[in-house]
Amino acid sequence: MEYMFINKPEFAEPIRVIFLCGIKFKDNETDKRIVLKNYLENDPKNKVLILEKYFDFAFKNDSSTGLLSYYDAELFNLHNIESFAALVATNVIVIHESLSTAGELGVFGSNEALRDRIITLVPDQFSVEEEKLSSFLRLAFWNKKDRLINNKVIRFYPTTNRSMVSETHSFYETSFDDNRLPPNIARRIKSQLVKYPCSNVLAVNRENVKNEKHSVGIWLNCDSIKNYLLAILSVSEIRKKLRSCKKIYEIRSILFNVFVETLKNTYYSINGERPKTVAVHIENQPGLTFDNAISFMMYFCHACGIMKIACNDDDTISVSFSKDLGSLWKEYSKLINPISFAKWGE
What we know:
The chain folds into two domains: 2-10 and 199-339, no CATH class; 13-198, Rossmann fold, CATH 3.40.50. Helices cover 34% and strands 24% of the residues. The protein contains eleven helices and 18 strands. It has helices spanning 32-40, 78-88, 99-109, 125-128, 135-141, 183-192, 222-233, 236-243, 248-271, 290-303, 326-332, and strands at 2-5, 8-12, 16-21, 46-49, 55-56, 68-69, 91-95, 118-123, 154-156, 159-164, 170-175, 198-201, 209-212, 215-220, 277-282, 307-311, 317-321, 336-339. Helix 7 crosses helix 10 and helix 9 crosses helix 10 (290-303). It is globular and about 70 Å long.
């Protein structure tokens, strides 16, 4: 069976993806991102993404930790990985306390596609004896006359623990009081979340296609790639194929080939001509590639609990899908249709 994508200019997304960024991750209840994750997941619509909880830059998947390797998915550049995570997210929450999170604000805030999605939490300067939001960041992203990040900064008042690095150098480790999100912070975060996620999901139209003889170039935004890939996963026979995969590259190959073939079918249904080749590009993101987008989306589905990829002791993987996703598949199935070439006269 083959398929074609359906254009949906105003697709109401059934999930809200929230990407959480912060300082060094500790996978326990004291980590502020875990506290945020637990709060946000009280709303079943929310899918919370913490990259360090599921992936690392080890040279292979590790069955002892359960962490998947970026290298096995041919994802080598952290800038691109975090850019993909932010671009497929409905909102990006950055808990800014370090040079690393300042770098993330720089990457996300300078990307025009992300400026409405960013929510920034910063500790009160008197709690940590330092103003984490530097003058450079304020002037670059929250300048009153030319704001690049539209949401106001949310200040929080953390519990602190002073850690000594040497006799002359120390820093503050911060946490939420009693490892719970303060109600006033929860209210302010909720007010900045996108209430009704809606995307312009278009596979083929006049504006995003360039024809060159028998080849077609198609430009897709990351929201379209995300939603169409989830539409592919809504097809039971494709999920069956994926369950048989034993290596990461097998998952990626199936998803890539199905996506491209479905684009070809979509182009044919609209233009009456089936291109021999289709080159897919990321709209307005020249440093990102479609190959990497498929690799990232594969890991995205794992981190969001949609497609579980388990590391086995014999260096293979096992793929499974949650059993409670029927309503999710029903919504995403609106973006894909089976087709019959016989019906088209082929």
